[in-house]
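Dear Dr. K.,

Following up on our conversation at the group meeting, I've run the structure prediction for MmcQ/YjbR family DNA-binding protein from Actinoallomurus acaciae. I'm pasting the input sequence below exactly as I used it, so you can double-check it against your construct before we proceed with anything downstream. Let me know if the numbering doesn't match what you have in your notebook.
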Amino acid sequence: MADADDVRRLALSLPHVAEIESDGFDFRVADKGFVWSYPERTPGKPRVIRTDIAVLFVGDEAEKQALLLGEPDLFFTTPGYNGLPLVMLRLAEVELDRLRELMTDAWRMRAPDALAGDLDEVGGPPDPG
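The predicted structure tokens came back this morning:
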């Protein structure tokens, strides 16, 4: 089981990551977001930043659908994310090793090639926990 502190620790262990000021968490590499707090929107109500749910960049629609169909207890989406390569991850349901893998994959997909080798040089983020 993971939480926002685990997301922060793992994100900041990746090279060239910047944390953007937010009501939750928001991490970027080369100005491209790879993981952030879910901004839940309910019609007629103010947006609520959910730090118990992470939005992850997944690369493409095929990967998105594979995650949604293969692990529905972990991942979901909403109509506002249709057509976007993003999934929502229930942090309380994910093991730390799996979170590390997902965040590292998201980082790799967003980092420019010139930075991607830096992750290999440091051997990736440290083992969680």
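Two things stood out to me. The chain has one domain: 4-114. The chain is about 35% helix and 25% strand.

Best regards,
J.T.
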